[in-house]
Design brief:
The complex is a heterodimer. Chain A is of the alpha/beta class. In chain A, 25% of the residues lie in helices and 32% in strands. Chain B has 2 domains: 55 residues, no CATH class; 321 residues, Cytochrome-c3 Hydrogenase, chain B (Orthogonal Bundle), CATH 1.10.645. In chain B, helix 3 runs antiparallel to helix 4, helix 4 packs antiparallel against helix 11 and helix 5 packs antiparallel against helix 6. The chains are: A alpha/beta, B alpha+beta.
Chain lengths: 237, 392
């Protein structure tokens, strides 16, 4: 199989301006990945599937990763003018001082795909894509039209991480119920205090049931039965 | 689900390779039913919203999540080893292969070596798991066809012998929690290996018995042949794996492709189907049981003496270096993979299970469209899923 650099070169030759970036992996598994530009991801995916040599026809695994905003403290060397009084005379000299500064690295949501080839029996090739941020700009192109196996897995990512896949044919929650609001796999998700969820609005069910029994009582009354006693009403006639 | 709500599905995007949706012909009565979540054939909480035109299925939407407990989130909050017993509860029929897949993924992340005897034990336990999974899967399939009891009890009789072996070695019939990163938890005593050889010697007779009982059975053939056809192009594109994929005629067995563990030392064949239907899926499982028995005989003959744990393996203070790894095995139901990201801490930063049961259900609607409602139960049974793994 081609090395990750060769795959990157092949993609760049086939899809001009694809903007592919190699993400090295330090672990002994040696599974390096390719970060795709979301705007070109769909064409790149099609190329990877249809290229005769790569023939990555099998999308095995698709999953999301949450990278929250990170506060980084770093030491910075700063040059500044320091005024000192030496022997009664004011002198200003430039000194290098170490300062610790806090900086917030903006977070993002990431989606990771593992591709294999069933025809050539090689793999994995790992693809990644990042959203712009974690709040309002969380759209990524769906790869379901290229590989059907992403259908349920992208629904799961949408459900648990909140990444919106544009071009997905049926983007609904997969595991949580439709009325659920949050995305539980995000790292800043907070469990609710109590777990008495009511997936079906309980008041509505009770109201319907009350209306139903009320109707029965009226029907029984018109037949001359004792009001409120259904069974006896039928037997009594 | 309402029929009107599904109308928009007619405009599906290009390259969306699924069969043309079937329109009602106006002869039968239109009916929408929810099969499940308490339907006896769904093996747990699972629902299929089915739209019928008379007896014919014209739409089918699977509804997931009844058993969801966010296994992945729980695993990210505890140490690496802490998730090992929990993997037993994913596909609770095949706990040992779940252990194996997780151990393999962590070993890829850390680069640990596994001693030879442990590799042999893993193969023996993995193949025993495959035999009992396929046996009970066939039993359930026939049970759902209406043959209440007999085939399932034959399968369970044999499964119980294998579960006794698991209990003897690991202490538990189904929640085995046996494998560790870099080996296995305890060594198998010689008496256990003798008992295993005895059970394995009895397995070919069991498969012959089921063969005689079912393979040529007229009712089975009439109910399953030509039902639930899954063409190979769709199977590959939809990421279907395991016996289902091979029943569609695609030669892809991860034991042969990845050569993980020591599978390149054993002689075995990969059976392939050529009608792509429910009967082929039944036949593939029968043939795979025979191949597994052959692997078991070879492994039990060759198993060497030695340690079962890597001496350098660290149990306490286990912190893999930052990085990521995807490890996968050929579990009885398909490709079971674990994707792990380490940030150098004691807990995995990201822990993902690639569940074969869920992904094999992607094509459920494709296989069911146009068939009778009674066949939906059969097609669903031939996928062979466990809800603990689908919903996680």
């Amino acid at each position: 199989m081609k090395t990750i650099e060769e795959i990157k070169a092949a993609i760049e030759a086939a899809v001009p301006g694809a903007g592919v970036e190699v993400v090295p992996n330090a672990s002994p598994s040696g599974q390096h990945s390719l970060r795709l530009e979301p705007s070109h991801a769909f064409e790149v995916a099609k190329f990877l599937r249809d290229d005769a040599e790569l023939a990555l026809d099998f999308l095995s695994n698709a999953t999301g990763v949450d990278w929250p905003d990170k506060e980084v403290t770093e030491k910075v060397k700063v040059k500044r003018l320091v005024t000192k009084t030496v022997d009664g005379v004011e002198q200003s000299a430039e000194e290098t001082v170490e300062e610790s500064r806090k900086r917030v690295e903006p977070g993002c949501l990431e989606v990771v795909y593992h591709l294999f080839s069933m025809a050539k029996k090689h793999g994995p090739v790992v693809l990644r894509m990042k959203t712009v941020n974690r709040t309002d700009n969380v759209e990524l192109p769906s790869l379901t039209p290229v590989w059907r196996s992403a259908e349920l897995q992208e629904r799961e990512i949408f459900d648990l991480f909140g990444i919106v896949f544009t071009g997905h044919p049926d983007l609904r929650r997969l595991l949580m119920w439709d009325a659920f609001k949050d995305h539980p796999m995000r790292r800043d998700y907070v469990d609710p205090d109590d777990y008495e969820y009511e997936p079906t609005a309980h008041e509505q069910v009770l109201a319907r049931a009350a209306a139903h029994t009320a109707g029965e009582q009226i029907a029984g009354a018109s037949a001359g039965a004792i009001p409120g006693g259904g069974q006896e009403g039928i037997g009594g006639k | 689900m309402s029929l009107s709500g599904l109308e928009k599905e007619k405009d599906r995007p290009e390259g969306w390779n699924r069969p043309r949706l079937i329109e009602p012909d106006g002869e039968g009565e239109l009916l929408e039913i929810a099969m499940g979540p308490h339907h006896p054939s769904t093996h747990g909480g699972f629902r299929m919203d089915v739209a019928l035109d008379g007896e014919r299925v014209i739409r089918l939407k699977p509804v997931f999540g009844y058993l969801h407990r966010n296994h992945e989130k729980i695993a990210e909050g505890i140490g690496y080893l802490g998730s090992m017993p929990y993997t037993d509860r994913l596909d609770y029929i095949c706990s040992l292969t779940n252990n194996w897949a997780y151990a393999l993924a962590v070993e890829k992340l850390t680069g640990q070596e596994v001693p030879e005897r442990a590799e042999y034990l893993r193969v023996i336990l993995g193949e025993l798991t495959r035999v009992q999974n396929h046996a009970s899967s066939i039993g359930f399939l026939i049970q759902e066809m209406g043959a209440s009891g007999t085939p399932l009890m034959y399968a369970f009789r044999e499964r119980e012998k294998i579960l006794d072996l698991f209990e003897g070695l690991t202490g538990s019939r189904m929640m085995c929690n046996y494998m560790r990163f870099g080996g296995c938890r305890v060594d198998a005593p010689e008496a256990w290996l003798t008992a295993a050889r005895k059970v394995v010697a009895g397995l070919p007779g069991f498969v012959d018995e089921v063969d005689r009982l079912l393979t040529g059975n007229e009712i089975l053939m009439a109910r399953t042949q030509g039902v639930g056809v899954l063409p190979p192009e769709l199977a590959v594109n939809a990421g279907v794996t395991g016996p289902m994929l091979r029943a569609s005629g695609v030669n892809y067995d991860i034991r042969k492709v990845d050569h993980y563990g020591i599978y390149d030392r054993f002689n075995f064949r990969v059976p392939l189907g050529d009608h792509w239907d429910v009967y082929d899926r039944y036949m593939i499982r029968m043939l795979e049981m025979r191949e597994s028995i052959s692997i078991l005989e070879q492994a039990l003959k060759d198993i060497p003496a030695g340690p079962v744990m890597d001496a350098k393996a660290k149990i306490r203070g286990f912190r893999p270096k930052p990085g990521e790894a995807y490890g996968r095995i050929e579990a009885p139901k398909g490709e079971l993979g674990f994707y792990l990201i380490s940030d150098g801490g004691p807990n995995p930063y990201r822990y993902r299970v690639r569940p074969p049961s869920l992904i094999n259900l992607t094509v459920l609607e494709d296989m069911c469209l146009g068939s009778d409602v009674a066949d939906v139960v059969l097609i669903f049974g031939s996928v062979d899923i466990v809800l603990g793994e689908v919903d996680r």
